[in-house]
Amino acid sequence: MAIKAEYIWIDGTEPTARLRSKTKILSDGKNLPIWGFDGSSTNQAPGAASDCVLKPVFSCPDPIRGGDNLLVMSEVLLTDLTPHPTNTRALLAPVAEKYASQESLFGIEQEYTFFKEGRPHGFPQQGFPAPQGFYYCGVGADEVFGRDVVEAHMDACLVAGIGLSGINAEVMPGQWEFQVGPLAPLDVSDQLWIARWLLYRIAEDFGIAATLDPKPVSGDWNGAGAHTNFSTKAMREGYDPIIAACEALGKNAAEHVASYGADIELRLTGSHETAPWNEFNYGVSDRGASVRIPWQVEVDQKGYIEDRRPNANMDPYVVTRLIVNTVCGALN
Ligand code: ADP
Ligand code: MN
Ligand code: MN
Ligand code: MN
Question: Could you tell me the pTM of the whole model?
Fold first, then answer.
C-alpha cells in the first residue's frame, strides 16, 4: 500500500530558522528519494532559480498518521547536490566524524512555552498570574497548563523512537521541558528537530502554539533555554577531563555564545538561574553558572557537564558542533 512520508526541513528564516514540511506519497517506503521544494517561499532561493533539494538524513515511524507512514528529517541541498548555505548539519557531520573516537554524547533539555489566544497558556486575559514559585514540576489546575498536550507529545516521541529521557513542567506557567539523549551529535540533533516538529504539530490539534522564544515574557519571568549536557568517553571515566572541558569552553566563550541562539542576551542576564552572557564561569551544582558540574559527577569523579547557556531557539547542529570542536580539540 502507498505510504505518506512527511519530509521535514529547516528553512532560511533569520535570525531563527523555522521548520517546514510536506507530504510525499510513496508506493514503496523502503527507498526514500531525494525531493525538492520552492526555496523562494522559505528564504532559501530567489524566485528565478527557486528549486532547492531535500535529502533524507533520518526517518522514523510517524506517530500521528500511524501505520507504515514515516517522518523524514531532510537536509537542504542546492541543485548541484552540494549543501545549501542554511544547511548546518553539513557543517556538523565532518566535525563529528573527525572526533568520533572520543565518543561524544549529548543530552539536550528543550524548554518551550505554550501560547493560547496570544498569551502564555495559563496567563489571565488581563494582567499576570501569581508570581513564579509553584509552577515548576507542579500539579493541579491552578499551577499546570497544557499537560494534555505534553502527554500526547511524549507518547508520540516514544512511538517515533525518539531517544526521549524525560519531561517536566517549568518555572513559568505554560512553560515545559523535554529532554532528548544521551546520543551522538548527529543523532541528538536530528531527533531534537523531529521532536520539535512533533511538538508544534500535536499542539496544533489542541489549538495551542508552542514557541522556543528564549524570553517570551519580559520582567520577572524565566526565559526558555536548551541546557546542553555533554560528555566524551574520557569525561565518563575521569574528573581531569571534566575540568579540562570546562576550561576549554571558557577559552572560546564568546564564539559559543554568539551562536547559541538569537536574543541570548535577553535571557542570560545573571538572574533567573543564568550567568550573564558576556561572562564565563563553571561550578559544581551551580545553576547560576555558565557551565554546571552536577553534584553526582563530583562525587563519582566522572560523568558529564551541563552547558546552561544555549537558548531554547538554538540550532543543535550548531551547538553540538561548537562543543565537540572546542572540547574534543582540547582533550585530543
Ligand atoms: P537538570 O537537572 O539540569 O534539569 P535533566 O534531567 O533535565 O537535568 O537533563 C539531563 C540530561 O543529561 C538528560 O537528557 C540526560 O540524558 C543527559 N545525560 C545524562 N548523562 C549524560 C552523559 N554522560 N553525557 C551526556 N548527557 C548526559
Ligand atoms: Mn532539566
Ligand atoms: Mn529546565
Ligand atoms: Mn538543566
Answer: 0.98
Mean pLDDT of the region 105-131: 95
Does residue 145 contact residue 210 with C-beta atoms inside 8 Å?
no
* Residue at grid coordinates 542554511: 86
Backbone phi and psi for residue 35, each to the nearest 5 degrees, phi listed first: -145, -170
pLDDT computed for residue 28 by the predictor: 79
Q: Are residues 113 and 81 in the same domain?
A: no
Of 87, 119, 146, the one marking the end of a domain is 87
Query: Which of 67, 87, 107 delimits the end of a domain?
Result: 87
In terms of residue numbers, what domain contains 40?
Answer: 3-87
Determine whether the shortest distance from the Cβ of 121 to ligand 1 is under 6 A: no
CA 235–ligand 4 middle distance (angstroms): 18
| 128 Cα–ligand 4 center, Å | 26
pLDDT tens per residue, range 237-279: 999 999 999 999 999 999 999 999 999 999 999 988 889 999 9
What is the tally of structural domains in the chain?
2
- Asked if residue 109 has its Cβ within 6 Å of ligand 1, the reply is yes
Q: Is 158 in the same domain as 178? A: yes
- Do 83 and 104 lie in one domain? The reply is no
The response to whether residue 182 sits with its C-beta less than 6 Å from ligand 1 reads yes
Same-domain check for residues 62 and 102: no
Strand spans (E) along 19-90:
19-26, 35-38, 51-61, 70-77
Instruction: Print burial letters for 129-155: b (CB count within 10 Å at least 16), e (below 16).
Output: beebeebeebeeeebbbbeebbebbbe
**Which cell numbers hold the place of 175?**
512553560
112 C-alpha vs ligand 2 centroid, how far in Å? 12
